[in-house]
Amino acid sequence: MLEQYDVKITVVKKLSTKDVFGSSPPGISNDVEAVCPRFKEGDTFIAEKGACPQGFCSWAFADIQRDIAHLRFGGSYPWLHEPGVAYSCCTDGLRPVIFRLERAK
């Protein structure tokens, strides 16, 4: 039977609209926050059995789920020097969040 792992998710960086677009972000509604309000840098979550952790943004999870599955089933990325680690981000084009994913031991 294939060994399966949980995956630790850590919020590494939250980018703002100014980080992405510089001094001229596109016209967006005034009620949209400049950075994602859902996470704080340093927040950690565990994706147990590949499931979305409680309190984690379901949109972000859908974006990073492929990398979680890859690590969960023992995969690694050859361009990263740490086996069992990946970096992934949500696809919010105005204020993306970058995550470090680590295969739990």
Uncertain spans: none
Task: Please count the helical segments.
Answer: 2
The tally of beta strands, per DSSP, is 4
Radius of gyration using CA atoms only: 15 Å
Secondary-structure content class: alpha+beta
User: Largest sheet, described in full?
Assistant: 4 strands, antiparallel
Reading side by side through the largest sheet, how are the strands ordered? 2-1-4-3
Structural write-up:
The chain is α+β, with helices and mostly antiparallel strands and 105 residues long. It has one domain. It is built from 2 helices and 4 strands. The chain has helices at 17-21, 58-72, and strands spanning 7-14, 44-47, 85-89, 97-103. The chain has a 4-stranded antiparallel β-sheet with strand order 2-1-4-3, covered by helices on one side. Strand 3 (85-89) and strand 4 (97-103) form a beta hairpin. It is elongated and about 50 Å long. The protein starts with 6 loop residues before the first strand and ends with a strand. The model has no long low-confidence stretch (mean pLDDT 91).
Summarize the structure.
This protein is α+β, with helices and mostly antiparallel strands and 105 residues long. Helices cover 19% and strands 23% of the residues. It is built from two helices and four strands; from the N terminus they run βαβαββ.
Name a few traits of the molecule:
alpha+beta; 2 helices; 105 residues; four-stranded antiparallel beta sheet
